[in-house]
Amino acid sequence: MINTKQLFTENTYIVAVSGGVDSVVLLHMLHEHKYDNLVVAHINHGIRKESYKDEELVKDLAIKYNYPFKVIKLNLGEDTNETMARLERYNSLIKIQKEYSAQAIITAHHQDDVIETCFINIIRGTGRSGVSSLQSTKYKIRPLLHVSKKDIYNYAKNNNLQWNEDITNQDLTILRNKLRHKVLPKISQKDRKNLLNLIAQTEYKNRQIDNELQTLLYKGLHKGKPVLSRGWFVTLPHDIASEIIRLLLIQNGAIDVDRPTIERVVVGIKTKPQGKQLQASGVDVLLTKRSARFKKRSQTDKKLV
């Protein structure tokens, strides 16, 4: 059931385990496939009072499977939104990856997550990229993307696995939870299959478009660095300029890039004076007279603007 095409036994991988059913199943499957070079990573966000129970469960699993265990404890507080929590979690996992010189991070995103993320991104206005944004990459491997939530639950029960249910997953004021509990159960298997096919087709087309955009973008960069020529940029049609900015933001570590953010950066580069700095989804864009310099926000200033 697990897709192991991107995994090689000679490499070290960080497997992110929250203590929920998805990641508990993922860890069990990896262990069953005899992957020994794993580091079990748990991020305790410090959002829920009972989060210590998740940490204890994951630690016990790491000991049971004889894997190294690494925890990073954050203190985000109960008012932290989903976007900030995800950004902090991602940055923490990257720290662990660097600490262990690991090839990649393995996460337990599954087929239902693919559909939910597609819907969320359409609602948020992320455009074509958001339809197929949840996929495996060289450094972030998601071997369960073809597995449904139903199959994950069945696997957990058939193998007598223990996991913790996050009570916040029942909060229907959160868009993802509303989609999960109210929308996805009403989608027929036929419509689900059609939707997944559409997402796959969009992913293929997006790769082709991004390759063409990358070729175009190279003409506007200074020696291949993330330093964009403002003189070249202002000559682009607005739609193409927007696609170029989306690509640059993602390549420089932006998280949750939506249409309003892209629009603000495009207009800012074309109109704002030198010395101004734009902040977009974890990336700083410093404007000089002739260029726009893209740089991932430092760890000391991660505020999303």
Q: Could you say how many structural domains there are in total?
A: 2
Mean pLDDT: 91
CATH fold naming of the largest domain: Rossmann fold
| Structural Rg | 21 Å
Q: Report the sheet-strand fraction.
A: 5-15%
Per CATH, the class of the largest domain reads Alpha Beta
What would you say this structure looks like, in words?
The chain has 305 residues and is of the alpha/beta class. The protein has two domains: 174 residues, Rossmann fold (3-Layer(aba) Sandwich), CATH 3.40.50; 78 residues, 2-Layer Sandwich (Uridine Diphospho-n-acetylenolpyruvylglucosamine Reductase, domain 3). It is 48% helix and 14% strand. The strands form two sheets. A five-stranded parallel beta sheet has the order 3-2-1-4-5, sandwiched between helices. It has a five-stranded antiparallel beta sheet with strand order 6-7-10-9-8. It is globular, with a radius of gyration of 21 Å.
